[in-house]
Structure formats: C-alpha cells, structure tokens
Specification:
With 355 residues, the protein is α+β, with helices and mostly antiparallel strands. The protein has eight helices and 16 strands. The protein has one domain: B-lactam Antibiotic, Isopenicillin N Synthase, Chain (Jelly Rolls). Helix 1 packs across helix 5, helix 2 crosses helix 5 and helix 7 crosses helix 8. The longest helix has 26 residues. It starts with 39 loop residues before the first strand and ends with a strand. Keywords: Iron, Metal-binding, Oxidoreductase.
C-alpha cells in the first residue's frame, strides 16, 4: 500500500479515496450554533493534593465530559519544547524518502512501531486520506526502543520524553475525573490504565478536494482516555447534539476525549465521544494521539459506585478488555454496534437481563 506522503502532490482526489455521498463531510455551519465549542479548562493548581481550586477543576472536567465527552486543557505542565520536539521529529519521519520508510511499512499489529495508510476499520473498503504511525510508547522499554526508527536522529529521544510527559498528564486527568465522580483518586490507577500506552501519529497531506473524502472515519476510541496534540491546523470534529463541531486549535493546548471504557465504567454517566478528521486543501495536518488503556486481562464493567439512583441499574456486562478489542474490530469501530455487544438488554416479559 503506497503512502500518501510518498506521492507527488495530487491535483485531484483518486477514485479510491472518494467516499459515497452519504459518508462525505458536509459544509460546516457558520451560524450561531457553530460557536458552541468544547470547553478549554485551565489546569493551573491541579497538582495541589487538596484545595478549592483542585475541586473546581475536577468539577469542570466532569461537566465538560457529561456535555461533550471532549475538552481542551491548558497550563497542563507539559513543556512546549517537549511537544514541539516530538512533533518536528514525527514530521521529519513522514518527510523522509520512501526507501527509508519502507522497512517500517507493516499492518502487523504486534509490532511496536509501524507506518501504514488509511484505516483497517471499515467494512466497505473505503479509504481515508491519511498516513499514520502506530507506536507502543509507554512504558519505554529496550524492546520497544529497538523497533523505533533511528531517523530522524532526534526521533527516539523526543518520543521517549514526550510519551513520559503525556503519560504523567493522563494520570493527573484520571485522578481529577475520579475525584469529580466522588471516587477514590486512585480509582483508575493499576490495571485500568497500565496497559501499554499506544500512540497514533496521524499525517493528513493537503487534499485537492476535502468535500469528497475524510481524513479519518467517525469512531469512538477503544481505550480509557485520549490525549491529543493537534497542532495549529484545524481538522478534528466531535459529534454533539446531532451535528459535527470543529474542535478549533488552542495554542499550547491538549485535546482530551473519553473512550468506550470510561463510558462503561461510569455506567453511561460520561459518554465516549464520536469524532472524525476532515482534510484541508491548503495545509498538511499532523496530530499526535496518545491512548491510555487497560491491561488486556483487566476485568471491566460498571463501577459499583456508579450503579445508583442517578445512573440506574448496570447497563453493561462485565468483560475482559481483550474481548472488547476483538469486538471493536468485528464491529468496524461502529459506536453503537460495539457497545450493543456488551450492553445488558432488559427482557420486558420476565424482567431479567442478558448480555
């Protein structure tokens, strides 16, 4: 499969990337409703172990998570030098000659570093306008590093530094979410968030006609929580109230969105957000997506504390995370199909429930 980053600039969208009309992006509404945007939350003071400011931040996160499932954070403690250092190294990788990227081309999911194009999550064989890196990035081990590329020369060091900093931020966010839900601040620690952290570096070249294709299909993330550096080029859209909202870049911010596991653990109180990527005609876009996930053998289901009068009875059955990964692939990333597989369906005639 040829990488888009290895091709000369296209003057038209090749047929294989043209989506059926019902899947193409619609023109964004510039009316008043377009000003509804996911919140930007200032994390300054979040490191304090206790105090009014920390409680306010936790409450803001829960409010944003309930309404949007996605928000942006500033004053998050990750140095801009660290962010830009890895973004530049990643952009440098995509800019390398095709021959230097060829050894890393693979669709083998067991590899700790690989580069490919489009997405495997589509039943109809539709192709999407992106190249991507899939990286096992945390914890940093010798086994992982050996598979990371040694070109550009800054890549390995920049990736290790970036992944450690973002992992620490993700843990801070998980503690704040737990506190905002009234759970112990260490609730999401351990098996729920200590699986191998995955990183997707998505590269969207300029597209000659963004109305005909998408950079990435609508989907929800399989994992617990996602921390995204989207740079200064807009392209991320999140579904809210039946329409797509553009998540406009905020200088120095990370975008945070909730995954399927957070929705299940909170018994539907916090919903995983459906999102997609649109393309640009006049600019390339690079996003760095860090996906925090449970261990494969972790047992997951609604937390007992989240099954109450407010959320109602348990909505999902318990399962092992590895089972969810298989179901997600089988459902081609369809939000409703994969959740329905784990949803408890009430039987009206008997009042019993079954998976």
């Amino acid at each position: 499969m040829e990488l888009l980053s290895d091709c000369p600039a296209h003057t038209s969208v090749p047929d294989k990337y043209v989506l059926p009309p019902e899947k193409r992006p619609s023109v964004l509404d510039d009316g008043p409703s377009s000003h509804v945007v996911p919140p930007v939350i200032d994390l300054h003071g979040a490191a304090v172990s206790d105090g009014r400011r920390r409680h306010l931040i936790a409450a803001e996160i829960i409010k944003a998570s309930k309404e949007f499932g996605i928000f942006q954070v500033v004053n998050h403690g990750v140095s801009e030098d660290v962010v830009q250092g890895f973004r530049e190294a990643a952009a440098g990788f995509f800019a390398m000659p095709a021959a230097e990227k060829l050894p890393y081309r693979s669709d083998d999911l067991s590899k700790h570093f690989r580069v490919s194009s489009s997405t495997p999550y589509d039943r109809n064989g539709d192709r999407y306008w992106l190249d991507y890196l899939k990286i096992t990035c945390h914890p940093v081990t010798d086994e992982h590093v050996r598979e990371w590329p040694d070109k550009p020369g800054s890549f390995r060091g920049a990736l290790a530094e970036y992944s450690a900093a973002v992992h620490e931020l993700a843990q801070t966010l998980l503690r704040l979410i737990a506190e905002g839900l009234g759970l112990d601040d260490g609730f999401f620690a351990g098996d729920l968030s200590s699986g191998n952290t995955q990183m997707n570096v998505n590269y969207y070249p300029p597209c000659p006609d963004p109305s005909l294709t998408l950079g990435l299909l609508p989907h929800c993330d399989r994992h617990l929580i996602t921390v995204l550096s989207q740079g200064d080029v807009a392209g991320l859209q999140a579904r809210h109230g039946g329409r797509w909202l553009l998540v406009r870049p905020v200088p120095g911010a990370f975008v945070v969105n909730l995954g399927h596991q957070m929705e299940i653990i909170t018994n539907g109180l916090l919903a995983s957000v459906e999102h997609r990527a649109v393309t640009k005609a006049d600019a390339a876009r690079l996003s760095v997506v860090t996906l925090v996930m449970p261990k494969m053998e972790c047992r997951i289901g609604p937390a007992p504390e989240m099954v109450n009068e407010s959320t109602g009875p348990a909505r999902f059955r318990e399962f092992e995370f590895s089972e969810f990964i298989k179901a997600y692939s089988a459902a081609a990333a369809s939000r409703e199909d994969v959740l329905d597989y784990f949803r408890i369906h009430s039987t009206a005639s008997s009042g019993s429930a079954a998976p």
